[in-house]
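#random but structural
TW: two for the price of one
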Amino acid sequence: MLSKFHQALQDQVRNEFTASQQYVALAVWFDGQDLPRLAAHFYRQALEERNHAMMIVQYLLDNDIQATIPGTPEVRNTFKDPAELIELALSQERAVTEEVIGLAKTARDEDDYKGEQFMQWFLREQVEEVAQMTTLLNVVRRAEGSAGNLFDVENYLARESVGDSGDEPGAPRAAGGRV
């Protein structure tokens, strides 16, 4: 029988894969609007969320717990304006932050010190993710408000280092390796 923490990790695998799929949908929308930097940003975000799921899978495997790979619910594909996509991404990152906090609390409540330590990286990661999406939303709103020109956002993304920059020291291993 799985502990409450290990069951919650199984649930989080679904959440991470769902987040990945939602980011693919956002990337495809931006691609369809001929906004390649925004599209690339969200394609990278999709891979990052997939990697998070696989990090959890690897943790489960390393602890001799059968990992299950779930299906994902439908994701949203229809949007009216770019800010709406970034608002969805920010909302998603805030929800994931709450999920990760819940996981860390559950591990602590169950005296699962390995699990609590494992969640520390994810807690740090979520601070970065929420801050990044908040900044991107502010930049998109400014661009839309000033002249409605999203090419300013494209230039911002080309100029600034935003998002996952590759392997991070201390990041958990991902089953099958990071993509």
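TW: number two ↓
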Amino acid sequence: MPQACILAHLSHTSSVPNLIASEPTLSTVLIGIAIAFGFGAVHALSPGHGKTLVSAYFIGSQGTPQQAVLLGLTITFSHTLSIFLLGAIALFASQYVLPEQSYPVLSFVNGLTIGIVGLSLLRKRLHSHSHPHSHTHAHSPTSLSSLVKLGIAGGLIPCPSALVMLLSAVALHQISYGLFLVGGFSLGLASVLVILGVVAIYARQWLERLPQTDQVLQKLSILSAIVIMVIGFGITVVSVTTSL
């Protein structure tokens, strides 16, 4: 399938304006990046793009703002990489596989990984709270490995909007501009996710200052792990049913 057909097919699922209709100058590149940043931020606020994962993870763990930055950037890096990979599939294997046909596979891997991470968090937190003598507070320390795994899984499914920007740039022989636009889009996505993570962290810290909140925090940490697990396995089930 030619590039034009791919773009026409994908454009039905995207509302991204044509940021690359003319030869880019420095000012148009900067404006395009700013617009892409805004679209990335709005994209992060749309359903199913890491908000619940980030909030649930940090509301149930003893995280730090630096870890919120790490999780947000990991989700964004994974998201950006998946856009480039799917773009390569669209360009070089479009006669065999449409980009959207790869979504169920990516969704399955994404959901399974998130579900496993959530299950691991639930097991650790249940074990932690069943041994109160080794913990003076209802804290669930943040695991760096689970943080990175969750970030990678959370950004694995690319969005059609960013993919259209990249493929449009390739079709118009403005690959560098397209990469800048995808980078701006990803930074907008990361910014919102980091802010949500920091808000969740400070919300938990505020709860910790209240009297007799240990049991509430214990339940929150367990509930957040369950939420992550349900989201992951839910994505897995949906990806299987939609591909049948």
